[in-house]
Write a structure and sequence with these properties.
Blueprint (H helix, E strand, L loop, with lengths): L1 E6 L18 H23 L4 E6 L17 E2 L9
Parallel strand pairs: 1-2, 2-3
Pfam family, one: Peptidase_M55
Protein name: Peptide ABC transporter substrate-binding protein
Organism: Streptomyces alboflavus
Length: 86
Amino acid sequence: MKILISADMEGATGVTWPADVLPGTPQWERCRSMFTSDVNAAVLGFFDGGADEVLVNEAHWTMRNLLLEQLDERAEMLTAGTSPSP
């Protein structure tokens, strides 16, 4: 089974205010870690559920919000310019 996760920072754990998703703010730095943890929880759940492949598409603004060094190494990451979105 192949899974595609399209993750957007709005709605992630701890995001309650516009500044939480605005690059460069202290709140954004804090929320990036929680956003990455949320994506990792989904990746873990999909692999535990039998997925063979999990592809992550970051869908928030500049697509540079996930902390790639903390992303589950089993996940494949799409980078800016390669989004499958129409």
